[in-house]
Design a protein that fits this description.
Chain lengths: ~140, ~325
């Protein structure tokens, strides 16, 4: 249904939209800026990488299983202990981007409860649980044959 | 625009510094001896940065997601294994979605009420898709990816969206979940009320969409929009806006699986993300002057080629 009685006057944006949007905005551009800085540290050699550059250029055409074995690369959250290395410090920006959605969802839960919309609060909570499960590194994945 | 130029310049300067540094030649020689593709180590990341910058521009002009172009094109024409291309592809699509999301949410063009139920389904299924995608032999995934890209190209060619679909009656599930809303269309100075229908069918399709996004490392905008708009009856602007926002949620869960399995190599992932983001930014500026229809057909043609190449690679022709 189209309503022209209030033509050219925009409608107010729900509070939860603004809250979510603000978290995404600052987190996204902050993450990208961080990525650019850490990549420059890595590419210029100012920080020594864990996997030598000459090894990476061979391993990036191989399956991930080979990369993990020959590069001695940890899985899950094992990269945290390698933050002092040029390649793995880049994970800070990547994890910031990947973690933003989880962070932005959490405040939605009390917001929807205050608005008297428990269904959406439950949906937001379930989404947080799904994303945390994915991020945890505990979900088992087999390797390609 | 100044920030775009500055960022690209700094990264290129980093590559140039690394190339000229004393160790640069030694690294190149060692890489060659180890069986790496010929050329210095920074060559492919630099090419990827420029390639993704152009891809970002084209994706915006063509109205196609950067993620759906990235995986088939990079896996087809670059030396990176599909495992790493999918990991980077999800991050690329995620970054694009996160950048677009705030503006859409604030203008009420992305509906959280529409997104939340479908996001839950799609994100859970994208985890399953990622798990299976990483378990299947690469040639099977590559072949299926090629077939999917061909399908998407044809879909983009023939699908006609509906600006404001007529929804006579909201179904019970849609009503219970409150999947309705109002947005202000600045183009026509209208306040538009909308509601959805065929919710169970839509949910079933989002299971498939989430699964494919996770398995192939693609963004899912090409599928989200037709389902939200043509099947569930959301107005096109709401469907596009909500899809963009929905991508972030779907791709986040799959991206974490790939990240935790070691499928993200920063040397290639970060130039991809930054290149595509900067390209998208420029693409938006150029949108007013470009001819989107022509570019869309060019991009569809490129996708047909990329899909064929993926099938060729998967079947070992």
């Amino acid at each position: 249904m189209i309503d022209k009685t209030n033509a050219c006057v925009s409608i107010p944006t729900p509070q939860e939209n603004i809250l979510y949007a603000d978290i995404l905005f600052w987190g996204c551009w902050g993450g990208l800026a961080l990525m650019a800085v850490t990549y420059i540290l890595y590419a210029t050699g100012l920080m020594t990488p864990h996997v030598p550059l000459e090894t990476i250029t061979v391993l990036w055409s191989k399956p991930v299983k080979v990369y993990l074995e020959q590069g001695h690369v940890p899985t899950g959250w094992g990269w945290v202990v390698l933050l002092g290395k040029g390649d793995f410090i880049n994970f800070l920006g990547i994890v910031l981007l990947a973690g933003l959605t989880v962070v932005a969802f959490i405040p939605l839960i009390p917001t929807y409860l205050k608005k008297g919309e428990p269904v959406f609060a439950i949906l937001a909570l379930l989404e947080v649980l799904v994303l945390v499960a994915a991020a945890s590194g505990l979900i088992p994945v087999g390797s390609a044959g | 625009m100044g920030l775009v130029v500055l960022t690209l310049g700094l990264i290129f300067a980093a590559f140039a510094y690394a190339a000229n540094a004393d160790g640069g030649k030694a690294v190149a020689e060692a890489a060659k001896a180890a069986g790496a593709p010929s050329g210095p180590w920074w060559m492919w990341p630099a090419v990827l940065l420029v390639f993704c910058f152009v891809l970002g521009i084209l994706a915006v002009l063509a109205g196609v997601g950067g993620g759906v172009l990235y995986v088939p094109l990079v896996s087809g024409f670059f030396p990176f294994h599909l495992d790493f291309v999918r990991g980077a592809g999800l991050l690329v699509a995620l970054a694009g979605s996160l950048a677009a999301g705030p503006g859409l949410l604030k203008r009420n063009l992305a509906s959280l009420k529409l997104a939340l139920p479908v996001a839950l389904i799609a994100s859970a299924c994208s985890i399953v898709g990622a798990m299976i995608g990483l378990t299947l032999p690469t040639r099977i995934v590559q072949t299926c990816l090629g077939a999917l890209i061909l399908f998407i190209a044809v879909l983009l060619l023939v699908s006609k969206n509906s600006a404001k679909p007529v929804v006579t009656k909201q179904d019970a599930l849609s009503l219970a979940l409150g999947m309705n809303g109002t947005y202000y269309d600045a183009a026509t100075c209208e306040t538009v009320e909308w509601k959805t229908h065929r919710t169970p069918q839509g949910f079933l399709l989002f299971i498939v969409i989430g699964f494919m996004a996770g398995m192939f490392g693609l963004g899912a905008g090409w599928a989200n929009v037709p389902v939200l708009n043509l099947l569930m009856g959301a107005p096109l602007k709401i469907a596009v806006g909500t899809s963009k926002f929905l991508l972030a949620i779907t791709d986040t869960s799959a991206a974490w699986i790939y990240l935790n399995q070691g499928c993200v190599i920063p040397l290639m992932a970060i130039p991809s993300i930054i290149g595509l983001m900067l390209g998208s930014f420029v693409g938006v500026k150029l949108l007013a002057k470009a001819k989107p229809k022509v570019i869309r057909y060019i991009v569809i043609g490129v996708m047909l080629l990329a899909g064929y190449k993926a099938i060729q690679k998967g079947l070992g022709w």
